[in-house]
Amino acid sequence: MSEKVLVTYGTKNGSTAEIADFIASVLRDEGLEAEVRPPSEVTDVAPYGTVVIGGALYMGRWHRDARRFARQHRQELRERPVWLFSSGPLDPSASEREMPPVPSARRAQRRTEARDHVTFGGRLAAGAKGRMANAILDENRGGDFRDLPRIAEWTARVASEIKAPEGS
Ligand SMILES: Cc1cc2nc3c(=O)[nH]c(=O)nc-3n(C[C@H](O)[C@H](O)[C@H](O)COP(=O)(O)O)c2cc1C
After folding, report:
1. Which of 28, 75, 94, 147 is deepest in the core (most CB within 10 A)?
2. Is the pTM of this model over 0.90?
3. Spatial distance between the Cα atoms of 142 and 11, rounded to a whole number of angstroms
4. For ligand 1, what atom is nearest to the CA of residue 18?
């Protein structure tokens, strides 16, 4: 099977896409071939040996594009190793403890038989779309809580599993 890793994501304001780019760059540093694509550009996962799917969290749900991707490709995803991540909390909580997947991400994990799910801190910055986003920003509750060392550490673990699958 192909060694190429697909990193795809559901985002509204771009920060989850940036996490996807960062994950791909860490995978490349680990010697793997990695491609970042929005779900709309992926019609088939057959060219990929491994898939990482990320989704921003909005109102307790995994982003729709990530949900849909996991649902539409579930058959093929079950045939290859899959890892999931969520990005959301606008405080340091995701760096301080393991945060379980929200129900829709858990459903995607079941559907795809994903190896693991992790929650990373999110980012909300000026210019974000939506009335609620701007209300949160007005209350000074935005910020960038993406923890790059933690993301790198998680990705390095994924890379080592890809390179030396369990049981091999
Ligand atoms: C309206 C709104 C609702 C949100 N709901 C949640 C939530 O339920 N859980 C969470 O952890 N973060 C929540 N967040 C924070 C976002 O997940 C965070 O800003 C994330 O990084 C956005 O990703 P994106 O830039 O890829 O869209 C919410 C943010 C907004 C603006």
Report:
1. 94
2. yes
3. 16
4. 26
